[in-house]
Design brief:
It contains 24 helices and 17 strands. It has a six-stranded mixed sheet with strand order 2-1-6-3-4-5. Helix 2 runs parallel beside helix 21 and helix 11 packs parallel to helix 13. The protein is an alpha+beta fold. It starts with 5 loop residues before the first strand and ends with a helix. The protein folds into three domains: 196 residues, Aldehyde Ferredoxin Oxidoreductase,  A, domain 1 (4-Layer Sandwich); 176 residues, Orthogonal Bundle (Aldehyde Ferredoxin Oxidoreductase Protein, subunit A, domain 2), CATH 1.10.569; 153 residues, Aldehyde Ferredoxin Oxidoreductase Protein, subunit A, domain 3 (Orthogonal Bundle). A hairpin with a 7-residue loop joins strand 14 and strand 15.
Length: 596
């Protein structure tokens, strides 16, 4: 129970569609979502498979709580091998698509092969069919979704835009106009398979093992979530509440992470957005947090613009890191990225890198006028050129590090990425914990596997110190791996004990808090095995040189840098706590203890 008990396999090369029973032993070991997807990916792919080749698989995963009455259970995730990094990728996503996929009767969908021509996939409780998408190819995600929702009333749609069609390696997959599987290029994998969209519809009932107890537990949990102060704050302002806090603490990425304090932060803050531009709140299925903010701009160059967001990461990377302090202009960039189908974090990080190269005089191009920090017109034009892979856009369509290797002149030192994935909205000289979290993340420079700023600002961790960081990062990563296997939201506050009881009541399994967290650790280790198999070692668990060499110029972190010796000691301790060897490879004993 909690699961639908079957999966869908689609070979796009030959149009073969088949159903399979869910392996309940694997479901118990890996929970679902991220974890079960990682296991399937590990078993299915040979080392060295080309991410944009037909052998790569694209998994659309739900979890045992997806589509139920548990708060934030509308989330789902996509698992594949990333074309941006060449390693494991899972991308967590909200909206209503995951709920509808589960109610169509499937725990997950596995896509492989490549269609001969553009197509879309229709999934419902009654049928699964592949249709021509010739009339949709070339359209943005907004129009694609609008057309398909009219064609299939009551359905949910996920789709790619021109960036995915053109195999931009940080293309995303969009759904519900406002939600995206953003990081790592899942949209490019979808585009490489000539798959434009998936339409899902279904109303099958999702059963719990103990329905009456499950209803009671989720009712109590809902009340607890509603009364949580953090939830109320996130509902009031949204994720963009972090702009002001990050700037005051000195870790808001500014001008390609040259600093952590942005003089224009107030102009793009969540408080200003709330007071002047927010006209409504949006929520994923089954979520009372409603952290999405619909904004409308009625004056100036962008008068008439209405968009969901921008979120914190978008404001940090397309805003402060590009030197842009015009909130409406950032919202416009947000809209461009969403419709063209690109990750705003990597897009912002890549353009900020290009701006720094231009200002240093080491990058000469003629496609865009005044490619400098703060020039919004150049940012908007760059986004379009990247999605189209035209002119200078071709150079940056694989991200900052790939471009740096071509540009040269030492620019790889300030291509701000880990394992080729551009860093998110925390400057590590202002948050030492994030230095280790970024370096050891399973998909590259990601903030979602472990978030240390809250602990550092509250005093749980000592600021500007590596003391206690390895243990905190390791434990957070295991816990998040389990949570993203459920699949629940990053923003959902819960105690492990209560969530384990809810999970057991839904599934009939007998998890303890310890075995639940061990499942998360099992997930983390199988992903490390996957990445090791693809050639990743301890050498890759490292930050860009800027953070070791340059002191932070202002704010709380002024004079701080990540001392390489201290970082390496913390990394070694982290490996020790994980039971990995000095190269960061899981030992046989560790794998055996996790039944891997």
């Amino acid at each position: 129970m909690g699961y639908m008990g079957k999966s869908l396999d689609v070979d796009l090369s030959i149009g073969k569609i088949s159903e399979h029973s869910l392996d309940m032993h694997l479901a118990e070991q890996f929970i679902g979502g991220k974890g079960l997807g990682a296991k399937i990916l590990f078993d299915a792919l040979k080392p060295g498979v080309e991410p944009l080749g037909p052998e790569n698989i694209l998994l659309f995963m739900t979890g045992p709580l997806s589509g139920t009455s548990v708060q934030t259970s509308g989330r789902w995730c996509i698992v594949t091998k990333s074309p941006h990094t060449g390693i494991y990728l899972d991308s967590q996503i909200g909206g209503k698509f995951g709920h509808r996929l589960k109610r169509a009767g499937y725990d997950f969908v596995s896509l492989h092969g490549k269609a001969l021509s553009p197509c879309y996939l229709e999934i419902s409780s009654e049928q699964v069919e592949i249709h021509s998408a010739d009339d949709l190819w070339g359209k943005g995600t907004y129009q694609t979704e609008e057309i398909l929702k009219k064609r299939y009333e009551g359905s949910e749609v996920c789709s790619i835009g021109p960036a995915g069609e053109n195999l931009v390696t940080f293309a995303n997959i969009m759904t519900d106009r406002t939600h995206m599987a953003g990081r790592g290029g899942a949209g490019a994998v979808m585009g490489s398979k000539n798959l434009k969209a998936i339409v899902v519809g279904g109303n099958q009932k999702i059963e719990a093992a103990n329905p009456e107890k499950f209803r009671g537990l989720t009712r109590q949990f809902r009340k607890k979530v509603r009364e949580n102060p953090g939830v109320k704050r996130r509902h009031e302002i949204g994720t963009v509440m972090w702009v002001k806090m990050a700037n005051e603490a000195g870790f808001l990425p500014t001008r390609n992470f040259q600093a952590g304090v942005f003089e224009g932060a107030e102009a793009i803050s969540g408080e200003r957005m709330r007071d002047e531009f927010v006209i409504g709140h949006t929520a994923c299925y089954g979520c009372l947090i409603a952290c999405g903010k619909t904004t409308r701009f009625t004056e100036g160059k962008y008068a008439g613009l209405e968009v969901d967001g921008p979120e914190y990461e978008t404001s940090a990377l397309l805003g402060a890191s590009c030197g842009v302090d015009d909130l409406a202009a950032i919202a416009k960039s947000n809209q461009i990225c969403d419709d063209l189908g690109m990750d705003t974090i990597t897009a912002g990080g890549t353009i900020a890198f290009a701006m720094e190269c231009s200002e240093k005089g080491i990058f000469d191009q003629k496609d865009i006028q005044s490619l400098k920090f703060g020039t919004v017109e150049a940012q908007h034009e760059m986004l379009r050129l990247i999605a189209e892979r035209k002119g200078v856009g071709e150079l940056f369509a694989r991200g900052s590090f790939s471009a740096a290797k071509i540009i040269g002149h030492g620019s790889t030192d300030f291509a701000i990425q880990v394992k080729n994935l551009e860093l998110a909205g925390v400057e590590p000289r202002g948050s030492f914990g994030m230095a280790l979290a970024y370096a050891t993340s399973d998909r590259g420079g990601c903030h979602q596997r472990c978030w240390t700023p809250g602990a550092e600002l509250s005093g749980t961790l000592t600021r500007f110190s590596m003391e206690g960081v390895p243990k905190f990062v390791k434990e957070s990563q295991d816990e998040r791996a389990a949570c993203f296997s459920l699949v629940l939201c990053d923003f959902l506050p819960f105690d492990i004990d209560e969530m384990v009881e809810i999970l057991n009541t839904a599934t009939g399994f007998s998890y303890t808090p310890e075995s639940y967290l061990m499942a998360g650790e099992r997930v983390w280790n199988i992903i490390r095995q996957f990445n090791t198999r693809e050639g990743m070692t301890a050498f890759n668990d490292i930050l860009p040189p800027r953070f070791y060499q340059d002191e932070a110029p202002k704010g709380d972190p002024k004079g701080q840098r990540i001392k390489l010796e201290d970082f390496e000691k913390a990394k070694a301790k982290y490996y020790e706590l994980r039971g990995w060897d000095r190269e960061g490879i899981p030992t046989k004993d560790k794998l055996a203890s996790l039944d891997l």
